[in-house]
Structure formats: C-alpha cells, structure tokens
Design brief:
Layout: E1 4-10, E2 13-19, H1 22-43, E3 59-61, E4 66-68, H2 77-88, E5 93-94, H3 95-104, H4 112-121, E6 125-128, E7 131-134, H5 136-151
Antiparallel strand pairs: 1-2, 3-4, 5-7, 6-7
Helix pairs in contact: 2-4, 2-5
C-alpha cells in the first residue's frame, strides 16, 4: 500500500508529514503543533532583525505602550496594527493589549481581530505564546510601505 501524507501551510513555508500507516500518521500529526511553535519562536528571535527606521512623529511612547500619532485617514487598520507591532518588535503584543493601544490612540476598531487574522494569513504576523509579532516579511512591509505611507503629508522641519 502507498504512504500517507499530510501537508501543513504556515507563514514560514510548507511542512509535510509522511507515514506508512494511518496510526503512524496520527502520531506524527500530534507532534506538529509542538514543531510549529518551535519554528515560530526561532523565526521571531531578536537576533534575526531589529527595526532600523525611526518612528519619531508616528509613535508616542507612553506608560501604556506605543501609541499611534498618525491620522486615521493616512493608514488602514491593518497598517496601524503592523505599525504598533513594529514599535515593539522583536517583542510581541497580546490581542487584547493591541486593541487597548488602538483605542487609546483614537483608532476605535472593533474589527481589529479580523485584521490581525488577515495579517497572520498573509505571513506578515505570527502568534507565539499568545502574543502577536511581525515576521521578517512583516518588518520589510512596514519599513518599505507602511512607514513611508504614514509619513506622506507629514510636515518636516528644516
């Protein structure tokens, strides 16, 4: 008889599990979450990349955490979430804390968990230990598109 195979897609790529019997496959599948968590943690390590672009004028550092100072008409909710995650990178933020920071910043967005899920599906954000963090691709997206977009129309001092 043939082999049994399961394919799992994650933000870091595709993982395949193969076994000779259904029982072996089930045993291997039970180990997948543990393996995925370990891979996610490795990919989220501080050594991989630290933010290199200044957030002056975009983020205010308060006792509650980073707060957005960008007008709502300049960014989408997804971009605002990514900018907050960038402000704490390589650390992460729990979903409820992210919602609190958005609200304090004046970005009342009851649908932010859906936007967070979209970012995760897009491979820009990952969830590690209950916190959400930017992936390397997420950092590149924020630095290459979100921050320049947030700065458009900003008054620069000469």
């Amino acid at each position: 008889m043939g082999k049994y195979r399961v394919t799992v897609r994650r933000s870091f790529g595709t993982m395949e599990v193969e076994a000779d019997t259904p029982d072996e496959l089930l045993e291997a599948i039970r180990k997948i979450p543990e393996i995925i968590d370990e891979v996610d943690e490795i990919l989220a390590k501080k050594e991989l990349m630290a933010p290199s672009i200044s957030l002056k004028g975009l983020i205010y550092r308060s006792e509650e955490g980073p707060l957005l100072t960008v007008p709502k008409d300049r960014l989408s909710t997804r971009e605002a979430i990514a900018l907050l995650l960038y402000a704490v990178y390589p650390d992460g933020i729990k979903s409820r804390d992210l919602g609190k920071l958005l609200n304090i910043s004046g970005w009342f967005t009851p649908g932010y968990p859906s936007r967070l899920s979209e970012l995760k599906r897009g491979g820009l954000v990952l969830s590690v230990g209950g916190s959400y963090k930017l992936t390397i691709n997420g950092v590149r997206w924020v630095e290459g598109e979100v921050i320049p977009k947030a700065r458009m129309g900003e008054k620069h001092e000469e």
